Amino acid sequence: MKKIFSYLFKNARKILIIFFIIAGALEILLAVPLVVKASNPTLSISVINSDTIQLTGYGDPSTSVILYYQNYQNALQSQYISSTNSSGYFSVNLNRYAYNINPGSYVYVIVNNQHSPSVAWPYSFNSTDISLSQTNLTLYPGQYQTVTISGNGGYYISNNSNSNAASASIINSNALDITGNAAGNTNITVCQSYGQCAVLYVSVSASQYNNYQNNDYYIGYNNQALTPITFSQSSLNLGTNQNANVTISGGVGNYYIDYISDEDSLRGRINNNILSLTSRSKTSRNVVIVCSSSYNNCAALSVIVGGSAYTPSGQNWSYCANENGHCSFSGTRSVRYGANGSYYYKTFTNGISCSNYIFGDPIFGVVKQCSISNY
Question: Which of 118, 128, 303, 308 is the most exposed place for a label (fewest CB within 10 A)?
Answer without folding.
Answer: 308
